[in-house]
Structures are given as C-alpha cells and as structure tokens.
Amino acid sequence: MAQSEISWFSALCDDDYEFLGVPDDELKSSWEHCRNIVMTADRYRFDNVLLPSGYALGIDNTAFAAAVAPLAQHIRLLLAVRCGELVVPQLARQMATVDQILDGRLTINIISSDLPGEKLDSEPRYRRSTEVMYVLRELLNRNPVEFKGDFLDVTIDPPRISTVSGRCPLFYFGGLSPAARQCAAAGADVFLMWPDTTEGVLEVKADMDRRAAEVGRTLRYGWRSHVIVRESEDAARAAAGRLLSRLDDEVGAEIRKRSLDSTSAGVARQAELREGSDDEGYVERHLWTGVGRARSGAGAAIVGDPDQVAAKIRELQGIGVEAFILSGYPHQAECDLFARYVLPQLDHGRLEFEPDPVAV
C-alpha cells in the first residue's frame, strides 16, 4: 500500500467538545489548549496539523503558527489562508517568515469563504482565489510578477525573504461547486474532500482528474474527516452516541449556520449524507454522519476498532487518497487514542513533490 500523509487538527475556531453543542470553557480555543493539541500530534509524529481560520470564533491562526513553530520539532503546520484578507505581497512575506521559523515545514490551506462583512457569489470568490494562488506561488518561487486580473493588479519583485527551500509550499484546497472545482484544478496541489461514500469519492476524483488535465495540471487527493477509535467496534459506536447525547437540535443548527461557508456545495453534500444515513447516522458501516448535526464543514467520522479504522484508511488509499487530515472530540484525547491504536499500522510520511504552475 502506498505511503500517505497522516495529519491532525488543532481546534483554533472554538470547535472542541466533550459533548457536541455543549460549550466547555476548558476546551475553548486558547494559546495553551491549541498548543497542547499541536504538541501531542508532534510527539506522536503525525506528518502535519491543520490550523483553521475563523473570524468570529477562536484565535488568529497565523499568530498562533508563529508562536508554536519554535516548539514543534517534527510536524508540518498546514496554515489556512483566507483569500482576500491580506494583500498578496504581504501574505508572501508572512508565509516565508513562518516557513523560516518552522525550518521549511509550512504548508498552506487555501480558503475561499466569504470575508467577514462581505458577500460574494461563488464564481468571483473562487476567481479571486485562483488569482491569489497564482501571484502567491510566483512570489514564493522567487519570481517577479506582472499580473492584471479581476481582483489583483500587481507589478512587483519578490520580497528578499524566502522560504527555506526557495519554493512555494504546497497548496491544499477543498470545494465542490463548479467554480470551486475549476479553481482547484487551476491552482491547488492537494484537493481535499470532506467525508463521502467510496463511490462519491471516486466520482469527485474522476471529475477533478479531468478538469486538471484540461489545464495541463495534475492533482493529489486528501480526505478531511473526524475519527472515533476504541478497542472494540461496540465501544467506538457507544462513544459516538455519547458525543451527541446532550445535543439540542436547535443549538446544533445554530452552530452550523454561523460558519462563513454554511451555504456551500460541500456543506450541502454533508447534509445529503446525513439525510441518507440509517437510524444511527451511518451512511456506511464505519462512516458516521452524526458530527455534522453540530458542525459545518466536515460532518462525518470514521468509527470503529483499530483494525476497522485502519482498513477504512487503506481502502481510501487504494482509490488514490494520499493525505488524511483527521480530528476527534476532544481533539487532544482522540489524537492520543488514534496515535496509539491506529498510527502504528499505517505507512506514512510527508507529501513531497514538485507542484505544477497555477493556470490563470
């Protein structure tokens, strides 16, 4: 079986619970709490850790990345960048600086959600992201830029500061709308999919392979989901039930609505999976959609004993998924369980390859 990148998630956007939908002051996003999640993942030798970006909730992820970078000894940081928040030349300097603090271990999650106080249709939002990816990659590749687009008008030399490698870090990107898919095909390196059935993953992958080929590019594929692993399948299913045992459905709906991507095509697909699941929320034997009752975005979890969870990951590897970004509730505790029960069964390491240019 091919080697894959196995990554974890640090809950910088107030997304950590013992019981979904029930706030816990000890699990709210803070420097100490989110640092502890990253350091746990680093100690267990996960390959990467996603640092999500929010506005109304949580703490700033770039400031956090710069602070935690000197503490992390092995792990990469997958820093979410919301396109349009910063002018791109400043963003390039910022990314290069963080990469230097990390000794070259920065990766970038490109986000195209609406900015706070702004509402753009899908097509222009993703067009903006394509332009940002192009200019950002050129500057971080140490190239001068002369570009005039719908959102960016830039004529500038690259900043003196560069990444450790002198190359742009990998771009991870997710989205299911037609505009999002075209944006990913044009500029992403790793296309991230939220949980879906195996058939659904294959359909999306085939479409993305075709779109990327049409613009002379290739993509790698990733899977972003939650995980609940226990010594037995019954115990894992019981843990899933306990996670929802205190959820008020109105509170769950409010949590879903407050995300800036709550109306996206990807979120709609997660809702469709929940609607098609059985009475306990399973759309496949080991794919449980209950998480999405109180969370926008990735709304399902791989649930089972260590061998079952590892087998599901290997199944996804077998159809071409190379990067896994996992999380669980509470995030530090589930990181520990996954690392002890499942991680030793998996052949994993960082994704390393030469990206294709962005097709603008």
Tell me about this structure.
The protein is of the alpha/beta class and 360 residues long. The chain has one domain (5-227, 302-345): Alpha-Beta Barrel (TIM Barrel), CATH 3.20.20. The chain has eleven helices and 13 strands. It has helices spanning 31-43, 61-68, 88-101, 122-140, 178-187, 198-214, 233-243, 249-257, 265-275, 306-318, 331-341; strands at 5-9, 48-51, 76-82, 106-111, 145-148, 153-156, 171-174, 190-193, 220-229, 282-284, 287-288, 301-304, 323-327. Helix 1 (31-43) packs parallel to helix 11 (331-341) and helix 4 runs parallel beside helix 5. The protein is globular, with a radius of gyration of 19 Å. The two termini are 35 Å apart.
Task: State the name of the first-level CATH class.
Answer: Alpha Beta
Order of helices and strands: EHEHEHEHEEEHEHEHHHEEEHEH
Task: Report the CATH topology name.
Answer: TIM Barrel
The N- and C-terminal alpha carbons lie at a distance of: 35 Å
Radius of gyration: 19 Å
Beta strand % = 15-25%
Identify the notable features of this structure and list them briefly.
TIM Barrel, 13 strands, alpha/beta, 8-stranded parallel barrel, 360 residues, globular
Chart the SSEs and their pairings.
Elements: E1 5-9, H1 31-43, E2 48-51, H2 61-68, E3 76-82, H3 88-101, E4 106-111, H4 122-140, E5 145-148, E6 153-156, E7 171-174, H5 178-187, E8 190-193, H6 198-214, E9 220-229, H7 233-243, H8 249-257, H9 265-275, E10 282-284, E11 287-288, E12 301-304, H10 306-318, E13 323-327, H11 331-341
Parallel strand pairs: 1-2, 1-13, 2-3, 3-4, 4-7, 7-8, 8-9, 9-12, 9-13
Antiparallel strand pairs: 5-6, 10-11, 11-12
Helix pairs in contact: 1-11, 3-4, 4-5, 5-6
